[in-house]
Amino acid sequence: MAKIVIIGAGFVGSTIAYALMIGGTAQEIVLIDKIAEKARGEAMDLSHGASFIQPINIYTGDYKDCQEADMIIITAGAPQRPGETRLDLVETNTAIMREIIYSIMEYNTSAILLIVTNPVDIMSFAAWKNSDLPHSMVIGSGTVLDTSRFRHLLSVRCGIDPRNVHAYVIGEHGDSEFPLWSTANIGGILLENFCENCTRTCSSDNREEISQKVREAAYEIIEGKGATYYAIALAVRRITESILRNEHSVLTVSTYIDEIYGISDIYLSVPCILGKNGVESIIPFELDETERTLFFQTGEIIKKSLPAALKEKTGNLPVF
Ligand code: NAD
């Protein structure tokens, strides 16, 4: 019986609740929002579907309801408006995150925290720093969504089921993220070798076009419909399942980086193994020279964007 609390019942929070509910991932879901009426409306609407799915209890609550939760998912915060970057939200959302983490810690210090609020790498770092939890228990949804966008675009271009396209986007969940072309593979065959035997016409320009489409997907969707929520909700469900079912799946969540390719003391997305304790380890991923440079650059961008309070060097790290 899994209990999940979702803080922030806006587009993303309520769609995550829907995805978890229809996936049978949790049997108890609590929605908390600073606008209580909004959370109440969403919980009512979702509960009215209960007779069509596995038994579930969805209700609204307050921070006391974090007690006994297995996972707490945070989506509360200001969303990106058309033309805004995720990093434009740093100051507002860091303050919101601090307040939320303090409230959670009063009632629950054993749940895994999954941060979705943007800019997600900085918000996850802020959540971890304001909690007393080991960093393995504070996770950002990171580039799990971007990785899925990448796999989808490759699958369309190559005419292959996206589930057989194995490729990652790493770094910032934002403008400096980048796909790992050097290790991308289709059904176990490196993309480069796959392309040699493929009759479709492609050029190296297609790679840049795909990378750019992945990076700019959120802007395009926000321009069109104001917010993105379906694919992120499924990405969050996938992360949640891997943790609650102790699956040890490899997913590019945002996690604490300590001396990886010259980067330390920030949160960034890299391929991680996820199980019941959260991030169990980072897989020893390999980067070619170009990717090393990009990894260093994305790390520097996040470092420079940290609010002053988060810039102090972290001491006495809790162990994994
Ligand atoms: P939204 O405005 O629809 O929802 C945000 C909700 O948070 C609102 O209902 C608001 O009342 C609530 N809220 C604000 N401050 C709060 C507080 N202190 N306590 C409790 N609730 C509070 O926005 P959205 O479209 O749902 O997006 C939510 C966040 O998710 C944004 O930061 C957005 O950028 C981010 N997002 C992240 C990803 C990702 O891949 N990580 C993808 C999409 C959106």
Written account of the structure:
With 320 residues, the protein is of the alpha/beta class. It contains ten helices and 16 strands. A six-stranded parallel sheet has the order 3-2-1-4-5-6, sandwiched between helices. A three-stranded antiparallel sheet has the order 7-10-11. Helix 2 links the parallel strand 2 and strand 3. The C terminus is likely disordered.
Kindly summarize this structure in a few lines:
The chain has 320 residues and is an alpha/beta fold.
Write the layout of secondary structure elements.
Elements (H helix, E strand, L loop, with lengths): L2 E5 L3 H13 L4 E5 L3 H12 L9 E4 L10 E4 L15 H18 L4 E4 L4 H11 L7 E3 L3 H15 L6 E2 L2 E2 L7 E2 L5 E2 L2 E2 H6 L7 H22 L4 H15 L4 E3 L2 E4 L8 E4 L2 E4 L2 E5 L6 H17 L2 H4 L9
Parallel strand pairs: 1-2, 1-4, 2-3, 4-5, 5-6
Antiparallel strand pairs: 7-10, 8-9, 10-11, 12-15, 13-14, 15-16
This protein binds nicotinamide-adenine-dinucleotide (NAD).
Structural class: alpha/beta
Q: Roughly how many Å apart are the termini?
A: 26 Å
The overall pLDDT average reads: 94
- Please provide the count of β strands: 16
Quote the beta fraction.
15-25%
Compute the gyration radius: what is it?
19 Å
The dominant shape is globular
Pattern of helices and strands: EHEHEEHEHEHEEEEEHHHEEEEEHH
Largest sheet: 6 strands, parallel
Strand line-up in the sheet with most strands? 3-2-1-4-5-6
Question: Ligands in the structure?
Answer: nicotinamide-adenine-dinucleotide
The helix content is: 40-55%
